Amino acid sequence: MTSRSSFYWPMRLLPQAKRQAMFALYGFCRAADDISDGADDIAVKQAKLTTLRAALAAWSQTGIALHPAVAALAPFIRRFDLPVSELELLLDGMETDVNAPLTAPARRELRLYCRQVAGTVGILAIHIMGRPDAGTFALALAEALQLTNILRDVAEDARHGRLYLPHEDLHQAGIITPSPRAVLTHPALPRACMILHQAAEEKFTEAQAELARVGRRNLWPAVAMMAIYHALLLRLPRRDWTTPPPRLGHWHRLWIAVGAAIRLA
């Protein structure tokens, strides 16, 4: 992971054991995501994901790690009691992207996808942070982050034949034919994006309310991610949705992460 990633500083500023665990978790997610988004044909991607899933199952049964991403994460699965079922659910989401990429899904389908590819990571991360009791907060925040990613990457996803904007939002905006490339040039695209933008705002608000309920102890990395991504969400409407998204600068992200650590110290 490079310092250009939004995740870098919230992870980098953790104590050593938790930092190593978070980087190992990121490595597992990155390995799965690279398969899903790679240039291989579908059959090869399916085989690679099957291999990764089999390696995870083999480690669970025998303690022998047959894949480097599993080997790197394995010590921390034990140390932080990480639920392997969440890693398996993450792979379900990656298989969805390979086998049947979402194209204008129903909102319920999008929520399931967010649970698979983002909620899983949130649940695993709060175990590493020592706050497995904060699951509702983690899931709300994870969905907010994933919706922000979807809005950020509308154009890039369309070029790969993917369209994560819910069909209810597209229809409400007046877009009837949800072809990824057609949506990208439709004059109502900004309206559809702003409907999902509001949904993302509501998830950030839900996460903030849940954080107030469970308390912030040990959760400052998640709070930093919330601040970084909310700042990004607020910047997204300032651009044409078909152009590369605005990015928070390296020092801006570091400042937000450090500020979160200081406020929660």
TrEMBL record:
CDD domains: Trans_IPPS_HH (cd00683). SUPFAM superfamilies: Terpenoid synthases. Pfam families: SQS_PSY. PANTHER family: BIFUNCTIONAL LYCOPENE CYCLASE/PHYTOENE SYNTHASE (PTHR31480). This is Squalene/phytoene synthase family protein. It comes from Magnetospirillum sulfuroxidans.
